[in-house]
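User: Study the chain.
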Amino acid sequence: PTFARLCWNHKRHPPPPRPPPPPPPPPPTRTTTTTTMWSEDWKWENAAAGAVAGFATVAALHPLDVVRTRFQVSDGRPSILPQYKNTGHAIYTIARSEGLRGLYAGFSPAVLGSTVSWGLYFFFYSRAKQRYHKGDNDKLSPGHHLASAAEAGALVCLITNPIWLVKTRLQLQTPKHHSQPYAGFSDALRTILKEEGLSALYRGIGPGLLLVTHGAIQFTAYEELRSTFIYIKSREVRTKNTGGEELLNSFDYATLGAASKLAAILLTYPYQASSLFRLILEPVIRTRLQQRPSSKGTPKYLDSWHVVRETAKFEGVRGFYKGITSNLLKNLPAASITFVVYENVLKIFRVAKGQS
C-alpha cells in the first residue's frame, strides 16, 4: 500500500523539469568589436605604440629613404649631386663616397619626424574614432575610419612639415655642397629661420596635405582587413576569455600592413591621370620644393606648378617617377614593420594592465 501511495503521489505531483542547457555561444560576427588593442579609450597607449613603431621603421629603412630623396631631386641638369643609375648603384655610390654617414644623412630629423608623426597620428586617430562612436558599441563604418584617418593625417602634416623639410635638406647635403652645410638639425632650423623666414618651414605643405588621402585609405583598408582576419580565424578556433587579437600574430600584422599599403596604391590608381600620382608625383613635387635655395638665396622652384612645368620641360613624364623603385622597396616593408611593432607594443601594454 505504501508503494502504491507513493506512485499515486508521484503522478499527482511530478518533479519539476530540469532546466534546458544553455545555448551554445553564437558564431563570431563581423560586427563584433574588441575592446583592447584598438580601443578608442587607449589614446595614450596608441600614441606610445605609434611612436615606437615610427622609430623602428626609420631605423630599419632610412638608407632607402635617402636614396629616394636623392633620386627625386635629380632633374638631369648639372647638379652637385652625383647621377645614379638605379637603387643599387645609388647605395653603392653613397656608401663609397660618403660612407655610412651618407646613407644615414638626416637620420636625427627622420627619427624625430617619424616618432612624432606616428605617435600623433595614432593619438588623433583614436580621438576621432572615439568622437564618431558617440557612446555606441557598434563597429565604426569604413567611412568613419576614412574620416578619422584623414583628420589625423591633416593635423600631423601641419605639425610636422618643418621636421620633414629639415630632414630633406640634410639628406641632400654632400661633401661638394655649394653652401655652408648645416651642422645638424638645430643648426638647420636656426639657419632656415634666419635666412628664409618662418614660411620656408612650410614649403611643400600643399602636396603633403594631398597625400593625406593615401594614408586615410591605407588605414581604412587595414581596419577592414584586420576585422576580416579576426572573423575568419575566430571561426576556426573558439577561445574562451581571449580577445580577438590573440588570434593574430606578427606574420598576420606584417601581411595586413603590406596588404593595406598595396590596397591604398590600387584604390588611388584611377584617382588621377597618372597611375601612381598619389604615391610618386606628389612626393617628387614636395621634395623638390623643400630643397635648399642657392647661395644667392634664390629657391630653385617657386611653387608646385613651377615644379610640374620644369619637370615636364626637362625630363618629361619620366621625371615624375624618379625614385619609384626605392619608394616601393621602402613603402611595403615600412608598412609591415610599422604595424607589427605597433600591435606588439599594444600587446605589452595590455599584459602590463592585466587584461586577458
User: Anything to note?
Assistant: The chain is about 65% helix and 0% strand.
